[in-house]
Amino acid sequence: MMIRADLHMHTTISDGSDSIQTIVQKCKQNGLTHIAITNHDDLDGYEEIQYYTKSLGIQTVKSLEITTVDSETGTKAHLLGYRIQDEMPIRRLTDAMLQRRHNNALEQIKRLQNEGYDINVEELKQNVYKIIYKQNLIQYLVDKGIADGIYGTFYRNYFSKGKLCDIRPTDIELRDAIVAIKKAGGFAVLAHPAQQNNYHLLPMLCELGLDGIEYRHPSNDENAKQKILELSKQYNLFLTGGSDYHGTNNKKPVNVGDYLSTEEAVRKIFCME
Predict the structure, then answer these.
(1) How far is CA 172 from the centre of its chain?
(2) S-S: 58 plus which of 53, 54, 205, 215, CB 3.0-4.6 Å?
(3) Is 176 within a domain?
């Protein structure tokens, strides 16, 4: 069987624009055989994911992307957790993170309201799964004719670095996140290392049980991929790949299946060996 796997994508449960049903249908249309929906800090929706993937003959595993920081160096890192067996070790960390993210969005709304923008929070929540993301807020303002696009002039004026709404919740401690993934029976993978330039974290992460590193990703250019390939051999890590698809919320156009995982990683994550 030919394996075509995209192991990094987001739905409306976090900051993607597509529903679970829509994204799974796109995966089928693009010939994917294996997928992982990796919403930010959230394992919700897996039963629905299973329903649609099974109906279309696609294999999936319970997965997420955890937003972390190494407190010793201040370095940001995203960890992908695949094939999660026990949700509790994960949720002990992520539930609080989601609440911090929601509170952060409410503060952004308050600041914009103080600038004179008419934002009805209850109306906004009608199109939000559970947690308000800045993409939800900006899309609401686009629909109201206030903002000119998810990442347009309004975004640059208010949400770009150093601007009024450039505030972020406290991330999960990196060490706690990888320990939780391993306790949950999952595979831990360092996401898009070139994007956050966090290669120096690999020795520590590998000591704690890191399994893989994301090789094919929109932010990994050829130089980064060569570096990742060399590091994977040095630390005995498998190589994953994924589009990091967010639908219309991607800053640059990308589609599911544009960045595929290696077959070795798929076989390990999906227990095909």
Answers:
(1) 14
(2) 53
(3) yes
